[in-house]
Amino acid sequence: MPILASYFCYAFLIPENFILRHPMKKKNPPVKEKQPPVIIAVVGRKGGVGKTTTSLNLSGELASRGYQVLLVDLDVQGDATSALTREEYPTSTGQVLLAGSGLLDALVQTKLPTLWLLPTDDDLKPRSKELIAHRPDDFRFALRDVLAAEAGGFDFVIIDCPPSLEDITLIGLCAATHYLAPALPSYFSLKSLNKLAELTTLIQQEPGMNPNLHFIGLFFTDFNPRVRNTLHADIVAAANHLFPGQVMANVRTDKRLGDAQRDAVPAQLRTPESNAVADFQLLTDEVLSRL
């Protein structure tokens, strides 16, 4: 099943004095066992297409509705982390994957009380190489195993995968119950959906990997129907022809999302009146209806 990519990711350089050296004591993350969480990997083959923005706003919208949500930053760039916190964090995604435990102790609470972040930093890539060396036969299941053991108190886990289809993305997809593919309304973004489809089909069909991985759908971000009169609309029409029944609601261009990410505040709190927040509300409704 084909899919892909996403919208504008804002990466800001954070001055050193923005970091909180003595953050307020956080509440404890949820530990009460429920049904296993829905785990959604947000995936894309290329960068700069809005994958992280989608991860941030889907998780923020779910949390604003009262769900207990964990956002796992599995992208070596760490943009989801810098968009949600200025706190120092003693443990990161790479360390948790390598240790195979310690998830709950590593979480950072965001300004939305039911949204928690597993942060990442520059050590994710070298830690992933250590993980592969340590577990060459089953490294792909490292995140799956940690979530199965410690994420039972969450309703949703959103995984922000890196902009590639390499080992770290494989770890995210093998942990997921579902995956979602944002895409830019451009020819190259549409063309690259097939590569993602090849990987996800392999994961579904290869014995022992993740046969129960379900595709939620694809949608277009940074959408503007007035661009060159019909260009964006033509791309969406082509996607509907190529992937019938799999194309979801568009998310309009909205630069105010960047303001929220710059200030490390979820957009649902920073710019609740923005077009993009309204569009992500509709998209979240559609995601929930497809689960």
UniProtKB/TrEMBL annotation:
What is the source species? Hymenobacter arizonensis
- Give start and end of each AAA domain: 39-214
Designated name of the protein = Chromosome partitioning protein
Record-linked Pfam families: AAA_31 (PF13614)
Phylogenetic lineage = Bacteria, Pseudomonadati, Bacteroidota, Cytophagia, Cytophagales
For this protein, the record's InterPro entries field holds: AAA_dom, DNA_Partitioning_ATPase, P-loop_NTPase
